[in-house]
Amino acid sequence: MSTLTLGMALKPREDLALPSRIARSAAATTGAQLRTEDFAGWLEQRRLAHHFEVDRIPFEELDGWYFRQDTGDLAHRSGRFFSVQGLHVTTGEGAVRDWHQPIINQPEVGILGILVKEFDGVLHFLMQAKMEPGNPNLLQLSPTVQATRSNYTKVHKGADVKYLEYFTDPRRGRVLADVLQSEHGSWFLHKRNRNMIVEAVDEVPEHEDFCWLTLGQIGALLHRDNVVNMDSRTVLACAPFPDETGGALHSDTDLLSWFTAERSRHDVSAVRVPLAGLPDWRRDDKAISHVEGRYFDVVAVRVQAGSREVSGWSQPLFEPVGLGVTAFLTREIDGVPHVLAHARVEGGFLDTVELGPTVQYTPGNHAHLGEAGRPPFLDLVLGAGPDRIRYEAVHAEEGGRFLNAESRYLIVEADEDEAPLDPPPGYRWVTPAQLTTLVRHGRYVNVQGRTLLACLNAMRTDT
């Protein structure tokens, strides 16, 4: 076999040192710039430094938005950003196999990026105090860059997105993670964002709304309610944590084979339909709501935000009805922690299913279905005592599209009687390391599963 030399040295396929650098940052609970105990004060300073205001308004007061005459879809006059359309979903199994709903159609791919840099030999992550109109407390810790294509191409004619160049110019940094990940399949149609972690190679200019934190510090903040936003959690889940165990109940090949079979056996149809006249949904001047008061409402808000690229705007938001419950059941199998993942069908997924938590429901949305329609393992999670709960915090979902969308995220210990090693169809025991491997690829682990993966990694740190 002949060898062709082009003067370029081959590179290792994997950076074998990176997982240990990630682990070192996760173990560091003291940062070079900001102490964890001072974080709440810093965030409050950033809150007081800018004027934030969100007011509900009727649809007719939306600036730049309109209902299309032919379909009733809610869209922006620029043709950009996103639109609210109707969706008709049919599935082959489950307590509910046919339904209609509003859905957010946002076909453009945004960037969710965290910039990292070493200080004193420890990786620090550049996090932003960012206001989102749907956040319950408005200001939360977001990635360095959190922007849709419409935002960073300045369709809104606003200011530049800070630090964007580190994620669009390959010469500015070294990519540690880069993957297209899905977002909420129940509320978005085929939505994807580019999740990136980039290591800066030069000095990084400082800005008062940003701070450097270690993974250990962020892990501590993940134990607090509504501090670390959804976009940060999904990017953090992409960090290549080391596999400290090396074993699993199912090999990676067996897991992928099972997952492929799950995708193949589900027959899911999701067809866009006009928003006007959507069965079981009604529209008045202030909301689009389900006739039974379940699921979510589509509402309109006017926003003032002094720290954003545009200081004022109006937009629709989805507002869920009730607090969600999102949980992994966990067991140690031969000394190795595993979690019970669920191959979930959601109408907005690009593929039929993605791996999600054991439980991912808003209990009130299922009360009318009776005992037969009760989701598996939901009562086990709801009834778990403090001695069984290994992690618990309330986290908000994406505040740029959802209003007061909160879920109680838990990791709950179970036993063989409650959660057997041979679980019901559609469920599989996996290790956190296996989830970390899958998250390197798009459309394998859903956004709620990625949040819980970030929380599992946070359990390595002290609170």
From TrEMBL:
The lineage of its organism: Bacteria, Bacillati, Actinomycetota, Actinomycetes, Kitasatosporales. Transmembrane segments: none annotated. It comes from the Bacteria. InterPro entries: EvaA-like, EvaA-like_sf. It comes from Streptomyces cylindrosporus. This is NDP-hexose 2,3-dehydratase family protein. Residues 37-238, 253-456 form the dTDP-4-dehydro-6-deoxy-alpha-D-glucopyranose 2,3-dehydratase domain.
